[in-house]
Amino acid sequence: MFTIDSPWVLFLATAPFLAVTLGSAGAWLLMPPGRMGKRLAGVALAATAMGLWASQLPRLDNWLDDALVCLPAILAVVAAMATITARTPAYYLSAFVGTALGTAALMLPGGAWLPAATVAVVHAGLIPAGLWLMLRRAGRNSSTSCDRPSREPLLAAVAGMVTIGVLWGALAGALGERGSDHQSTLLHNGAAVGALLLGIGLIGLLGRRETVVMLLASQVMLLGASLSLIAFGRFHNDAAANTFALWIAVAAVCQIVVGVAVTAMLLRPAQRKDAGA
Question: Which of 164, 222, 234 is nearest to 19 (CA)?
Fold first, then answer.
């Protein structure tokens, strides 16, 4: 039963809900195709949402620890948003590299060196390189025309907003009584960024029709899941979370191998095909 002091009621009445709402609206406006005015409005809304979101993150003991957490978090979230909204292969592949590097940096404070190195090598190196070579061989070096005006970006933004809201509300309920010690703060920040990456990836997966962007959006979701697992494993001092994160990286490689093969077949006629066709 919901009461006035329920975490869900507090979530709906505070800045995080506004941040999620503005961020989702910004993602919808940034989705291609769209004119410059629409994209500028999307950038403004997304930037406002980022400021509200950053203001809600709990702070650590000193400014250096704060910087080591906040800067990679901002990089991961901003780059993830750029990944799902960019139009050209060079832009969305570069943005995905930024997402992977930011996520890997967030895994380091808990001592998860092996998962962080795996993410850096696989997601920031092998996956973008393989997709770039495949796109160059297929002659796809410019902006794409697979994304067409439709209701899908709006519905995807709503789905992403609901997903982030549910995860953020559940996180607030789970951590509401744990205080604000160093470990709880690291858990909150890691899980919050993981929830954002999961929601952003869902928006890209449902809202874009460009096949490669859909593959990258699914990888953003996997990065968010890995980060959340490691954050909870670090809090509970459970090394099994690192093992699960490594298995997620293996699954990501298998997914990309299959996805690249399917995408190469779709692009073989040298015509840009709608992924939803």
Answer: 164
